[in-house]
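Weekly modeling sync, notes
Attendees: AB, CL, MP (scribe)

Item 1: holo prediction request
CL wants a bound-state model with heme C before deciding which constructs to order. AB pointed out that an apo prediction alone won't tell us much about the pocket. Agreed to run with the ligand included and paste results into these notes for async review.

Input as submitted:
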Amino acid sequence: MKYLKLATMISATILSTFLQAGIEEGKVLFKEADCMRCHKTVDFKHREDKINSYLILSRSVKACARNSAAPWFDEDDESVTEYLNKKYYHYKK
Ligand code: HEC
């Protein structure tokens, strides 16, 4: 039982480290792709009629990444979505 608890603690730490790495990567990608040449910080907020869930946010990131020709893979879209979500939207996945 003791080991189980330890194993759970370790895997939770590893998981949050990965998540944090994704968010950090998202921040860098977002900066490199110069997304803010069109956007302002105030754009990134919850709006019931527009961006109202993690899924919709992730679709918008994808659409914008393709439109602005950011050379991103799916994992990169995901990292940027996580970054924007952590910083601005705070949706549950
Ligand atoms: C050429 C201009 C342009 C660039 C560059 C751009 N976007 Fe957008 N983005 C838009 C427009 C236009 C919308 C839609 C706004 C609306 O519906 O009112 C939008 C919407 C969004 C939304 C939904 C929130 C909102 O404001 O409606 C997100 C999230 C987003 N973009 C992320 C990104 C990311 C990430 C990048 C960088 C890869 C990026 N955008 C680059 C023009 C741009």
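Recorded for review: The chain has one domain: 2-89.
Action items: CL to compare against the apo run; MP to circulate these notes.
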